């Protein structure tokens, strides 16, 4: 098992767009859904996703901010991230993570009514690629 740094993991994640975001529902079940990080893939321990306020995702995060992310990449790369989600409604912060492709879901950009940005701050990253696997803990 080779030891990887956050930089090593970030290099592998550069081209990974879709993650499965898992939350815990109000009934104690797990709900997963595909989320696009909108090409915002310069990974520094934080992942960002746009969604709508009032969505099941937002409701789940408001009740329990502990979430999971899973990514699958080329050459049998698998990455699992556990972390804490924060809901961001601050437009200047949203603008920093906005890319034009997101307009297909949010027609008015960051001025779309009800838009919210989810930030997932990692506390543990597990990775597997062929025989290489490991775990990285991110200090709070």
TrEMBL record:
Domain General stress protein FMN-binding split barrel: 7-131
UniProt xrefs under InterPro entries: Split_barrel_FMN-bd, Stress-Dev_Protein, YdaG_split_barrel_FMN-bd
Record-linked SUPFAM superfamilies: FMN-binding split barrel
Protein name: Pyridoxamine 5'-phosphate oxidase family protein
